[in-house]
Amino acid sequence: MARLIGVLGGTFDPPHIGHLTLADTGRSSLGLQRVLWVVTALPPHKSAEPITPVEGRVAMVQAAIGDDPYFELSWADINRPGPHFAIDTLRWLAERRQGDDFVYLMGADSINDLPTWHNPKGFLEVCTKLGVLQRPGVVVDMQALEVDLPGISSKVHFFDAPLVECSAHDVRCRVRKGEPFHHLVPPGVAEIIVNTGLYR
Length: 200
Known about the structure:
Layout: E1 3-10, H1 17-30, E2 34-39, H2 54-65, E3 71-74, H3 86-96, E4 100-107, H4 108-112, H5 120-126, E5 129-133, H6 142-148, E6 156-159, H7 168-177, H8 187-196
Parallel strand pairs: 1-2, 1-4, 2-3, 4-5, 5-6
């Protein structure tokens, strides 16, 4: 029987408690054996924004997940040239982890944008399920999505998680302004930010 593996992709600049909440609640709610943290080396949608070099973001993700047996750092988007689209990530993983089925984890705001992704129909074909974290105030129009992406309804599985008001942008802004931020990131991540002078 195939293992269900969660895939959490992102820039992780930096990884924060919202990411951990999404990963852990998604794992528990959807019966995932493991969650792969895929650090996107060259995110196509952020090409104009300055981002921390990938080595620094990898170090922060390693610090964030620690020795949690359910979490694993994936090199899928680091060991191959960019740009890194979700469909290519899943294909890369499928070739190397035969026997695993992949559940792509995302927030409800992201699924509304799915029709604008690179080859969204192909992405849905490769993906076993979409684990979608419901967010307060975000309405997902499944009928509209079904028009653009027929069959998506059978793949979407919504789940709830404790509300965490946090984003990587918030963390970076707080660090830059000298405001408290340690409560928004794991201790190891905070230590890296402080010791390297990141975001200042």
